[in-house]
Amino acid sequence: MMIIGLIVAFLYVILSKLKSPIFQIESAEISRIIIKPLNKSVKYKVFYSGVGLRDPINPKCLVQFEYVNESKDADILIFTTLGNTNYQEDNFSEKMGIRNDQILVFQAMECNSYYGYHQYLHKFNYTMDYRLTSDIPIPYSETFSFNESLPLENKTGFIAAFISNCDDNNNRMKYVEEMGKYVKIDSYGFCQHNTEIPEHYRSPMLHVEKMNVLRDYKFTIAFENSDDEDYVTEKLYHPLSVGSVPIYRGCKNVIDMAPPNSVIDANKFESAEALSKYLIYLDKNKTAYNKYLEWRVKGDFGNLKKVRLFRNSAEYGICALVERLENLWINPYLTDWTRDTNYSKLACQTCLKNFNVKRRRIPIETNDSFVLPEYQEIQNEIVYSWNYNEAVKDTSHSFNETLDNQYLNVFPNIILNINFDETFWWLVPYI
């Protein structure tokens, strides 16, 4: 009850400070309500084509779905990057026997630079990938969690690297090789391998083995194999999870994907030599080094909060998709664009017009949601005028400004249930 009281008090303060609102606020309109699943029976049948783990079916999803083994029986066809090339063919829909009433979804967690799939997205109604501007974003940041605060004294290693894919298109291995002229890098992966994993860190699970090692190092090489926008993978989040400072190279907007002052961005240095000299300085200066760990102590996730508006593919990808089909939520970063398909009624130019803003997607752990104040009909204009810019300030990412104003500023981003003894925390947008 105390938590509910604090939330109500917080809302009262925020609402009392509204300046020149363009709508009338009625107290009854901001009361808490309970949203139950729309339909406990199956609403959509989903056919999954390609290589990858299928999302589990969660009964708490607001819209129910089930998997089918034949594409002809499906309402939704999901094609993954891996295991699929047929979408690249001409007359793809006709060759696959796809009906006009079936919804096509493209799913990818691999970078476009390697697979070149962006040129084919016009064939699909919805996208579900790592990009924040995707219809259904499933960013890698959802794998990020931590449950410990490690003191500097526990770290005996300098720089670690786990790189096993030696093929890249951004010269990351040449950069690592150049760094090796100035600093010692313990390389545990296949690429430039020079260090063996200690016996006491061995584990049948490679992920556990890697994390055991990184926990001992001040720094970890976190170089992506591509520099695609929004393509920030576990290479960043693994060292963050165990208190090792990532030396990152790849996505230029990494600042939007990480806690504040938690990453050393190699993109900002003139050369590998300049970066190496900075690492040597930090190694000898405890005060300067520890500034990269302050976010862990404060629980300050900064811009990462924006990315964590979304759940990961393994838990929520398809559930979010079917809820989107019912206009229960919309990606606030979604770019307003139209696909060249036969399904114009599903094109993004109509997203705002059809979006039911009174019912937003919520975490699957709860059925609680909130009603918004009275609002004007959304017609691609700034509907809300709340002076709440914390969610979008200090970012290099070029989000759609109209959507930011309409959705991010309306829902103050509140972190709930932060407990450093647990492995996960959830970011829940409330009003």
From TrEMBL:
Keyword terms, alphabetized: Glycoprotein, Glycosyltransferase, Golgi apparatus, Membrane, Signal, Signal-anchor, Transferase, Transmembrane, Transmembrane helix
Species annotation: Tritrichomonas foetus
Origin: domain of life: Eukaryota
InterPro entries: Glyco_tran_10_C, Glyco_trans_10, GT10-like_C_sf
Fucosyltransferase C-terminal domain residues: 153-327
Record keyword Membrane present: yes
Entries under Pfam families matching the protein: Glyco_transf_10
Family membership: Belongs to the glycosyltransferase 10 family.
One GO MF term: fucosyltransferase activity
Name by which UniProt lists this protein: Fucosyltransferase
Pathway in which the depicted protein is active: Protein modification; protein glycosylation
